Amino acid sequence: MPRLEARWFIEAYEKNKDKNPIILELVILDYNIVQSIHQEDLRYVSTWWKELGIGKRFSFTIDRVMENFLWGVGMIIAPRDGKSRRILTKVNVLITFFFFA
Q: Which residues form the Terpene synthase metal-binding domain (predicted)?
């Protein structure tokens, strides 16, 4: 999960005396782009889960959308593979729902 850990390295590099400001700016830009892609993927999956309505129909369900999405981000790390991340998250959400139901 190097993309998620990048924020810690950015903060450490910012404190470095010998930092290259151009590299720092590019790294921050890349981090923000990837973060916005992940936020859009999570928004899509959260909307899908709410529209599915399983959480409202069954009082015993546990909403684990974020947990399953983070698992998908750890497995499919390339930002361009958002569709795969979304599908994997949907599958994982349904599996955990039926497993814990």
A: 50-97
